[in-house]
Amino acid sequence: MGLVSSTPLLQDARKNGYGIVAFNVHTLEMLQAVVEAAEETRSPLILQTTVGTVKHLGLDYLVANAKVAAEKASVPIALHLDHCTDFDLLVQCLRAGYTSVMIDASMHPFEENVQRTKRVVEIAKALNVNVEAELGKVGGVEDDIVVDEADALLADPDECKQFVELTGVATLAPAIGTAHGIYKGEPNIDFKRIEEIAKRVQVPLVLHGGSGIPGEQVRRCVSLGMAKMNVATELKNAFSESMKQSFRDNPGELDPRKYMVPAKEVVKQLAKQKMELCGCVGKA
């Protein structure tokens, strides 16, 4: 099938009240695990990479692996660049084959956020690539982007409407009280704000900071219009904890396959749980 744009996938999710999970992957095994989970559950999938992962693995290697996975798969797969503030790198990813990108200019004033986002939208439109942007500031840590809780700002519903109209962006990630990383307590999600944004904005909405949100809260977010949920930290932690356990059980093990295989299985099972939670099972 090959890599596809996430725009029609997310539009269908928003229209029909389910969510598609975007998994941040950092290794080939993690990529394979979420693809296998999507195949086995018949779920549409968004492979997601941070700027740090692009630099770590190499852009060409990353795209080549994603393309092979998508060509072999029978479910639709998109490749998304998350939280990119570097315009030149974003363009490189577009040229390399990414089918979805996020321009994050949320740290700038509203007018500048509009200008920077619009510039990316104009380029991506010709390539049939989805563009995601953020309004407000999601707290927590995402690669090198750190937003203290005190600095996190919730998105204004009227500004969300204006932003989408001015930029033509295909998907919007409004700050609604979630945070990147693992929550120390209950996340403080503003459901009323999601509802008000969804009334004004027809494009699919994106839930950032999806790791560790209680299931009933995820389902409520999805029902209100969140068509994409990002899962990063929870997946990365599960992968790493599995390998740590393998070394505790077999401290002398030197064959990577012996500890990568169980780690991959843990990621796959977690991915299936998240797909079930967001209601995208069987939607491929």
Folded structure, characterized:
This protein is of the alpha/beta class and 284 residues long. It has one domain (6-278): Aldolase class I (TIM Barrel, Alpha-Beta Barrel), CATH 3.20.20.70. The chain is built from 11 helices and 10 strands. The chain has helices spanning 6-16, 28-41, 51-57, 59-72, 87-96, 110-125, 157-167, 191-200, 215-223, 233-249, 256-278, and strands spanning 20-24, 45-49, 77-84, 100-103, 130-135, 140-142, 145-147, 171-174, 205-207, 226-231. An 8-stranded parallel β-sheet has the order 8-5-4-3-2-1-10-9, with helices on both faces. A two-stranded antiparallel ribbon has the order 6-7. α6 runs parallel beside α7 (157-167) and α7 (157-167) packs parallel to α8. The chain starts with 5 loop residues before the first helix and ends in a 6-residue tail after the last helix. The model has no long low-confidence stretch (mean pLDDT 92).
Please identify, by name, the CATH architecture. Alpha-Beta Barrel
CATH superfamily: Aldolase class I
CATH class: Alpha Beta
Q: Beta-strand level of the residues, as a percent range? A: 15-25%
**Could you name the ranges where pLDDT drops below 50 across 5 or more consecutive residues?**
none
Here the CATH topology equals TIM Barrel
Q: Count of helical segments? A: 11
Terminal CA distance reads: 12 Å
Global morphology:
globular
Mean pLDDT: 92
- The helix-strand sequence is HEHEHHEHEHEEEHEHEHEHH
Rg is: 18 Å
Structural class: alpha/beta
Biggest sheet statistics? 8 strands, parallel
Estimated helix fraction: 40-55%
Cross-sheet strand order for the largest sheet: 8-5-4-3-2-1-10-9
Number of domains: 1
Count of extended strands: 10
